[in-house]
């Protein structure tokens, strides 16, 4: 079957791989669309230390069950699904305390193990989420949006919060949407005016270009001089990490999603003087996925988050273009 393969940094192609036999408890999915994630871009650029090459990318799945393995009823054939693309060992501390999304030994599709950018892919039934009624394209948006939804849960956002989201790509979009759904006022920050325009359209109360000379003064004006009560870092670079801590209000909450890729120096007195709650946010829970599905069912215009749809044969040129201009893309879907 046809598959996209990242052979080495800067080298992607379409090849043929063998269709795997179904194991007990698995289903075979015919892929409609698979989203290209920032982690796939990092793999292509050689910046993902968790990847070994060659690697089939892809974990943002939209598909249909076409076959069931032993122990799974055939009545599920024909149902459209997405899935949680993470593994969990069940034995580490995270798993034993119910936070399986942060399993110490997690292996995400397309990262530590081959992903779903193939014509067919086998998935454990336990990892499926049924989403009848969603369009095929919306199905591929569930996983990336769920990561932002989870960050909002980690930040314990409520209706009297002012949330500043740093980075308005797909992950940041999820954080904006979920914060708005919880009744919070949202300040969206990015350096790309196109992304700020989208952030406004999905509910951000205010948008600020981080390159503005009066950036800090704008934040203070919008927060009555206090700073936001919650900052969510969704860009993964040194400046956004530092800004999240510098601009958050005293006793505020800071949530980090992105990997900065380098060690970062902080003025540590802010940790103590502000008595900050600083939290990492990794992947998403099943509840986050279900919340995104409910949101997408009620929002007909959510497909505006999709930058473009491509064929597998276009993957190499498109991801190369994205690597040269990483701020230009919200979401690219590969149609199989």
Automatic annotation (TrEMBL):
Domain Alcohol dehydrogenase-like C-terminal, residue spans: 171-296
Keyword terms of this UniProt record: Metal-binding, Oxidoreductase, Zinc
Flavoprotein is among the record's keywords: no
Requisite cofactors: Zn(2+)
Transmembrane segments: none
Family under the similarity heading: Belongs to the zinc-containing alcohol dehydrogenase family.
Record has Zinc as a keyword: yes
Domain Alcohol dehydrogenase-like N-terminal: 24-128
Name of the protein this chain belongs to: 2-desacetyl-2-hydroxyethyl bacteriochlorophyllide A dehydrogenase
Organism: Maribacter vaceletii
GO molecular function annotations of the record: oxidoreductase activity; zinc ion binding
Matches recorded under Pfam families: ADH_N, ADH_zinc_N
């Amino acid at each position: 079957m046809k598959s996209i393969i990242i052979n080495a940094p800067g080298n992607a192609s379409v090849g043929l791989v063998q269709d795997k036999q179904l194991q007990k408890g698995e289903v075979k999915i015919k892929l409609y669309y698979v989203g290209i994630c920032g982690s796939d871009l990092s793999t292509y650029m050689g910046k993902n230390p968790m990847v070994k090459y060659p690697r089939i990318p892809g974990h943002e799945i939209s598909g249909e069950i076409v076959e069931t393995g032993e122990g799974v009823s055939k009545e599920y054939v024909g149902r459209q699904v997405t899935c949680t693309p993470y593994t969990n060992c069940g034995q580490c501390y995270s798993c034993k305390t119910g936070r399986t999304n942060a399993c110490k030994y997690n292996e995400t599709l397309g990262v530590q193990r081959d992903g779903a950018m193939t014509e067919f892919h086998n998935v454990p039934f336990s990892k499926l989420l049924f989403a009848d009624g969603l369009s095929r394209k919306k199905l591929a948006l569930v996983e990336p949006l769920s990561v932002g939804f989870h960050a909002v849960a980690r930040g314990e956002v409520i209706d009297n919060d002012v949330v500043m989201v740093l980075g308005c790509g797909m992950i940041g979009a999820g954080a904006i949407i979920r914060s708005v759904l919880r009744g919070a006022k949202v300040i969206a920050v990015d350096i790309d005016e196109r992304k700020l325009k989208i952030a406004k359209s999905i509910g951000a109360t205010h948008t600020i270009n981080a390159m503005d000379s009066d950036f800090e003064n704008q934040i203070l004006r919008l927060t009555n001089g206090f700073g936001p009560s919650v900052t969510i870092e969704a860009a993964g670079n040194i400046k956004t990490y530092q800004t999240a801590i510098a601009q958050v209000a005293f006793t505020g909450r800071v949530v980090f999603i992105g990997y900065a890729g380098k060690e970062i120096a902080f003025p540590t007195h802010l940790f103590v003087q502000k008595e900050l709650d600083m939290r990492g946010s990794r992947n998403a829970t099943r509840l986050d996925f279900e919340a995104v599905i409910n949101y997408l069912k009620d929002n007909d215009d959510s497909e505006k988050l999709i930058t473009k749809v491509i064929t597998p044969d276009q993957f190499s040129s498109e991801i190369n273009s994205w690597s040269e201009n990483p701020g230009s893309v919200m979401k690219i879907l590969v149609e199989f």
